[in-house]
Amino acid sequence: MQAVIATRHGGPEVLTTVDTHPEPRPGPGRVLVDVAASGVNFIDVSQRRGVFAVPTPFVPGVEGAGTVAELGPEVSGVAVGDRVAWAMDGSVTTAYGAYAQRAVVRADRLVPIPDAVDFEAAAAVLMQGMTAHYLTHDTHPVRAGETVVVHSAAGGLGGLLTQYAVARGARVIGTVSDPDKHARARAAGAELVLDYPGFADRVREATDGRGADVVYDGVGAATFDDGLASLRPRGTMVLLGGTSGPVRGFDTGRLLAGGSLRLTRPGIADYTRDRAELLARARDVFDRVGADTLRVHVGGRYPLAEARRAHQDLEGRRTTGKLLLVPRV
Predict the structure, then answer these.
(1) Distances, alpha carbon 302 to alpha carbons 20, 54, 181, 189, in Å
(2) Could you read off the pLDDT of 41-80 as tens digits, one per residue?
(3) What is the C-alpha to C-alpha distance for residues 249 and 134, in angstroms, rounded to an integer?
(4) Would you say residue 87 has pLDDT above 80?
(5) What would the CATH number be for the domain defined by 3-125+272-325?
(6) Where in the chain is CATH 3.40.50.720?
(7) pTM of the model
């Protein structure tokens, strides 16, 4: 089968597409899935770079959608032919193998795809949609009338996070890396869209000096300090990741100096810890997509042979929305 291999840790050049990769076999509690589409995520980049030390060589890809092709032993609740999607189950140092024509997935991590949602939408929305759900419902339960700052508001997660926050009655201030991305962030529901330089002062101005209730920051090193400065007393900084680099050497005394601020670093594994929670979040996401109240923007579709280019585009911040790999069948 065709698959993308990260031959070693490094830049996009370490990704190689092969046409004769051995087909994986499903062991106990696992199923084989014919992959229709797989999501491209920043965690794939981090694993490729070696930030998360996945042993090489490996097939990247933590998220996908497709059709169940074969059941391994001790599998129940799923059948051959089912339309399913999945996202990573927690370990950032595990290669999940979605950049391939076929992948083996834990049966208890599969979620059914409703008829109203196609494979590409499912692969584009599941992980980031469930992330947006737990961030706005649990990590910081967004309330009507709050001011929410969403970094990378034109991106895949940022756009979904904006939509969820607006649906809960919040005012969203979005930030973007390029003026050309303002329109995409506004289309997601952001009331005000800012470029990164000087955004803390602009947030203060837009809130009459009060500051934002919560900042959702997936950028990290480049935006973290200004994010803290833009919060109201007892506001919440939600650090999602570090596309610009990790936040290092943080002095917790700054939280007190900023007005008894809160800082949290959540991860999807802790918000989909059991199957009931996983299915509830996935159902909410897919129901909204099917009803067209949560809009999925696919910013690029690439064949497996162009996975390297997909990573280059993602790292170069040349994209909006979600990027997908569509395997050749």
Answers:
(1) 19, 24, 21, 27
(2) 999 999 999 998 899 999 999 999 999 999 999 999 999 9
(3) 27
(4) yes
(5) 3.90.180.10
(6) 132-268
(7) 0.94
